[in-house]
Fold this sequence. Notes:
Chain A is mostly beta strands. Chain A has strands at residues 4-6, 11-14, 19-25, 30-38, 45-51, 54-58, 61-66, 71-76, 85-93, 102-103, 107-112. Chains A and B meet through strand 4, strand 5, strand 9 and strand 10 of A and strand 4, strand 5, strand 9 and strand 10 of B.
Amino acid sequence: QKEVEQDPGPLSVPEGAIVSLNCTYSNSAFQYFMWYRQYSRKGPELLMYTYSSGNKEDGRFTAQVDKSSKYISLFIRDSQPSDSATYLCAMTARGTGRRALTFGSGTRLQVQP
Amino acid sequence: DSGVTQTPKHLITATGQRVTLRCSPRSGDLSVYWYQQSLDQGLQFLIQYYNGEERAKGNILERFSAQQFPDLHSELNLSSLELGDSALYFCASSVGTDGHEAFFGQGTRLTVV
Lengths: 113, 113
């Protein structure tokens, strides 16, 4: 079983829809949770990060972390065709032994105009 | 533009050869991470350096090695190349060692023929 599970999609939505992207994880030591957007095999672009549980909002994007369920989400409001990309969740733990991001496999999102 | 610079963008080489990939981190970032992204494996962590010292190792093959120089740029050396080494190689950098808020370069696309 992978440490981070993410539905690969593709997820196809009409323009203006609310998109929900999710990841589950098994390592309870993870404390930082990130969302990256990757266009056509370009470099992943950091969208947001959250420390521990809770919500964080940035424009049309909202990240949620539920550590009790080991479940994180990214919501995109008023989705645009330019949001079409692969979305990767990533997480890391503080302290010794774990200093690199563990990524989900990515969800491919298509926003239809 | 993330501020992380990777060269070259593309590399085509033959099996058995050796190549060097270069990464310049964002100004002020002390950590450099190397990741490999292939179609069937997603983003795999290879190795991390912090201020010139190796801090974490992931799934890096013995044929691969890396180093971080005093000016903080890093090089990833891949030797005895095999067809299966064809992939995108990304470098990321961050200020600290926890790996959160890591910014990625645009990658080097390696093709081994």
